[in-house]
Amino acid sequence: MNDWRGGDRRAVKCGRKQGWAARWVRTMAALLPLGVLAAPITALAQTVTPDSDQGADAEAAPHQLDKVTVSGTAGQALLDTPTTTASRLGLSSRETPAAIETVSAETIEQRGLRGTVDALNAAPGVLAGQLPSSPGVSSMRGFSGGAISLLYDGVRQTAAPLITRDFDGWSFERIEVLKGPASVLYGEGALAGAINLVPKRPDFDGRATSLLLGWGSFGSQRYGIDTNLPLDPSFALRLVASHRRSEGHVDDTDSRSSSAALSARWRPSDAVEVDAALDHYEDDYDSAYWGTPLVPRAVARDPSDLVRSSNGYVIDRALRDRNYNVADGTQTARSDWLRTRLSWQIGDGLRFVNEASYYDATRRWLNSETYTYDAITGLLKRGITRIEHEQAYWVERATLIADSTLGGRRNRASIGVEFSDGDFKVPRRFGTAASIDPYAPQRGLFPVGDDALNFPGAGNRVDFDSNTRTASVFVEDALDLTPRWLLLAGLRYDRVELERSVRDYNTGVVTRFQRDYDPLSWRLGSVFDLRPQTQLYAQYSVAVAPVGSLPLLSLANSRFDLTHGRAVDVGVKSSFWENRIDLTLGGYWIEQDDIVTRDPANAAISIQGGRQSSRGVELSVSAALTRALSIDASVAGLNARYDALREAGGVDRAGNTPPNVPERIANLYASYRFEALPLRLSAGLRHVGAFYTNNANSIRVDAHTVFDASLAYRLPFGEIALHGRNLGDAFYADWSGGAADQIVIGAPRSVELTFKVNL
Predict the structure, then answer these.
(1) Could you read off the pLDDT of 414-448 as tens digits, one per residue?
(2) Model-level pTM?
(3) Local structure of 383: helix, strand or coil
(4) DSSP annotation of 171
(5) What is the spatial order of strands in the sheet that 307-309 belongs to?
(6) 3-state helix, strand, coil in the chain (%, to 5)
């Protein structure tokens, strides 16, 4: 047997099917005539009277792309800020017929949001959890995990849950959340939306350096540096680095993470700009916390009502700090990402953008991840898991963007191609560990040796090797039908080729298979200016998603086609009171067909034919009420359900709610900056509704509300801030853990003192 820890196995395969690239060049050429998707439509009757205070210019082109800076006074609206996640045409949020939420670097800093988990939980309608196998896994609009694409600077990878980490918020200029199907932009898997982590980039505004130091509860420490260095008017460098460590609020759960990004920007002429960046990230968790198991109420020493289960099991508060992982448990990750971007303004209204990146990562887990209470022995039965990821991935995307007129109306269009290739090697080992007393755990060590004695049985000692190649062509068009009415359309065709092998060392069986997919995704939307600063929007979109993670697709699931999703978005976006208030109100419906279910005639056979859906309403408001007082508020309500789903034994789950999907999320955050003192006081409430941990809905986690507050004092050279989190010391959970009957308990009350220095 080969040594499955060997580093040379990460090399990207050189073998390719003959003629693969040539076929997609021909496909692109065939689709070129679709560059303009919108057809002329009869002008809308001018039935809406513009605001009286806007004068004769009220109908002047409202679709402006000016960058805005908000200082708490009247000015330009946040909705006019361009977004890179929802379109490649440079559209602002106001021009986009979908809900887009942005968490800026300023918000991350003011609220003391340490990582992407904190930042995503600050975004309206989003729930992010600290599941150890996927730190930062998210849920929104009734879907979670692989239904949400994770982008890094606009580049996505297959199977987002494989690469999610709790990246430090210090690294990012902003985090954009696009809600609703996004396959037309990013391919398969973006069924419920996309999260784009936008890193800080060099600029030419001048030299600047910031330092961050932080200390807090549970032995937490945080350090960061951010330095921007323009070397001349055409070349600039930026270095952003950070380090975090913590002893954790659960026994023996020390963790460390570090990140560094070196980026360069070069402008050899007014028409050409080149960006290059190298990002490094690593983390290390000692015997990570995988959740707290349920125990019988009669056994619990301090039973809580946090969880309600059909068998009467509860979460015992007395176990809040207990860790049941093996004492030498390990969870580590390392990744390097090389990114390049070339932007060339070919001529008036014509621009070419080429983006290329290479990603390389290794991850390792050696843990006891699952714990089940045994009513006979009174002990916790434990499983052990040994998994390694060796992942290499490259992607090349070229886009031609035009801004011209069509029939006298402004027309923005793009056409492009994208090629990607990913290798993914995964040794996986599963076994059992010694049972332990939940109240006096002797945790033991992970067994030594990679043999059938430690990992017995078929399927428990296997190596997976996957290669996923994708070629795509996409087009997008935004046409101003009238000065008030914009039509947006997009189309994307993907060719996905998957090759996979599975070697079972316990049985000696080697299985190889391959599968090709040819999905077509599209969207059609419209934005109408009801008033100059008030837009109505509507969109219909079609998306696709695999029945499981493509790199980990099993032989049984390889016979299934991609699932298909469709969605409707409608809503209104408005800025008023001299642009002091931005409001977005929207409703949506998403349906996913062809999920795997059981044959009604034979429950032993899995088929495609299941269906799940969600519908809901979201409201978000950002208000600068005075120069000193600002408020951000949001509420999201949804109804998510399985419309058709049968599981093993023919059990009908229709009408049940998918796991880890709260149907109510609300945020309220206020910040007040004193006029007479260099002081800022901030406070916020976050409410997350109840959710279930399994398809059977037999385990229900209660809703929770968490209160945070911050006090910041401005200095001539920086700021010192005290952040308090969960100040009410709520006993709550935000995700299910290694199994449905394990609950990830949130951290108790904590504080952190940070000191930022501007040099």
Answers:
(1) 999 999 999 999 999 999 999 999 999 999 999 99
(2) 0.88
(3) strand
(4) G
(5) 307-309, 699-701, 691-692
(6) 10, 55, 35
